Amino acid sequence: MCIRDSLEAEGPLSRLIKRVRQKEGRKKSVKRHLPPGEIKWNLSPPEIREAVLRELVHESALVTGISAGVVFKTPGGLWGPELYRVAAMNALEAGGVLEPAAMRKKIRLTIDGPPSNLTAFFSWLTPERFPNVTMRAADSQAVSELQVTDFIAGTIAAAFVHGEARYLRILEEGGIPVLVK
């Protein structure tokens, strides 16, 4: 997800998760589904999923676009770091990050997981080839923006893998472009 937010502790996207907790947490039907700490797509009921996406649309001025690489896990095919390396490369290509015109823009990638993920998945993204790109590893429990990104990934998977487009429509109708390769 390409955002204009600075990924600081109290940026608008950080507050997004807090707003969902405050608004949705008052509803008895939803309150029991709101775990303390991190909110994740795969553990959230439809009401929470929709609330997070609607809050993201509310902050759409911060989102310049969403690009994703869809890679299917197949027996005998790519697996582990190689699978995610291909998915990451596809997502960056779909978003135009690797195009010569993008070299003038500063790009900051925040990757969920340990620093070893940076070398495992992005060894090809060297400072010599892409001096405009900086990367950091972070824990999604501590970085709300990664929690929001988890909902974006869930939205894309729901639409393109499972044929459930209602969540994707929330983003598109809210004016947030989604590019998938």
Q: Would you kindly provide a brief summary of this structure?
A:
The chain is an alpha/beta fold.
What does this structure look like?
Helices cover 42% and strands 13% of the residues. With 181 residues, it is α/β, with parallel strands linked by helices. It has a three-stranded mixed β-sheet. α1 crosses α3, α1 (12-24) packs across α6 (144-160) and α4 (81-94) packs across α5.
**What separation lies between the terminal Cα atoms?**
14 Å
Helicity level, as a percent range?
A: 40-55%
Strand order, main sheet: write it out: 1-2-5
Please tally the β strands and state the result. 5
Largest sheet: 3 strands, mixed
Class based on secondary structure composition and strand pairing: alpha/beta
Average pLDDT, all residues: 75
Overview features:
disordered N terminus; 7 helices; two-stranded parallel ribbon; alpha/beta
